[in-house]
Amino acid sequence: MAAIAVERLGKVFNRGSPREVSALREVTFSMASGEFVCILGPSGCGKSTILNILAGLESGFEGQVLLEGLALRSVGSALRVGYVFQESRLLPWLTVEQNVHFGLECQGFHRREWPARSAAVLEMVGLADFAHHYVHQLSGGMQQRTSIARALSIDPQILLMDEPFSSLDEFTARDLRQQLLGIWTRTGKTILFVTHNSFEATFLADRLLLMTRRPGRIVEDLRIDLPRPRSYDDPRVFDVNGKVVKTFFKSMNEP
Length: 255
Ligand SMILES: Nc1ncnc2c1ncn2[C@@H]1O[C@H](COP(=O)(O)OP(=O)(O)OP(=O)(O)O)[C@@H](O)[C@H]1O
Ligand SMILES: [Mg+2]
What we know:
Elements: E1 4-13, E2 21-31, E3 36-40, H1 47-54, E4 62-67, E5 70-71, E6 81-84, H2 96-106, H3 114-124, H4 140-153, E7 158-162, H5 170-187, E8 190-195, H6 198-204, E9 207-211, E10 218-223, H7 235-253
Parallel strand pairs: 3-8, 3-9, 6-7, 7-8
Antiparallel strand pairs: 1-2, 1-4, 4-5, 9-10
Helix pairs in contact: 2-3, 2-4, 3-4, 6-7
C-alpha cells in the first residue's frame, strides 16, 4: 500500500470571485513507505498547497488523497503527519524545548512524555545544549533545526517539509541536508520535501516530481539512481542535476 496516494488533485482558491486562482490541476502521484520524494517547481506552482492539503490544513479540493490507505477525513489519530513549514512558525516567547513541547501538546501527547521526546529529537538535530534558549537567541539554521525537531517529536509516519533550507546560506544548508539524510536513514520515515532548488532535490531524493507553472501539474516523475550515502564531491550528482535542469526547462516550454 502506498504511504501517499494522490489522484487527480485539483485546487481552486476563491472560486467564482474576481480573485479566483486555479492553483493545482490533475495532480497525480504516489509514494511508497520510507521513500524520499522531492517536489521541484517554480514559485507559485502550488507546492505548498499540496503539502497543506496532505496535512489536512486545506480543504475543498477535487480528487482523492489517501494516506496509508486512509481518506484524509478519516485519518484522525490513526496516522501522525509532521510538517516543517516554509516560514518559521516557532513561538518566540517559548524556548526551544518548550516549542517542541507545544507541538507535542497540540498532538495530544501526555505531559509525562514531553521531556524524553524533546530530549531525543533535540539530540538528533544537535540542539541538546540549546534546549533552554529562546528563538531569537538562535541562528537561522538552528531555528530550522528546531522546526525539524518539533516535527519529528511526534514520531510521524509521514514528514512533510516545505523548502526548509531555502533561506539558509549554502554551507549551512549542505550540513542540514546531510543531517536530514542521516535522520531519514536511521528512522526510515516517508519524506515529501518541497524545493525550487534542483541541486538540493537531486542530492536528497529517490524520486523527483517536476511541476509546471500554475495551475501546477506534475509533468515528470524522475527516479534518481545515485548511490547512497551521497557526497557533494561526487561528480555524478552534478551530472544528474544537469539532466534534471534540462528536463525541467524542456517540460516548462512544452504546451
Ligand atoms: N489561501 C490562499 N488563498 C488564495 N490563493 C492562494 C492561497 N494559498 C495559495 N494561493 C495561491 O495558489 C497559488 C499556489 O500557491 P503556493 O503557495 O502553493 O505556491 P508554491 O509553489 O508553494 O510557491 P513558492 O515556491 O513561492 O512557495 C498561488 O498563485 C497563490 O497565490
Ligand atoms: Mg510555497
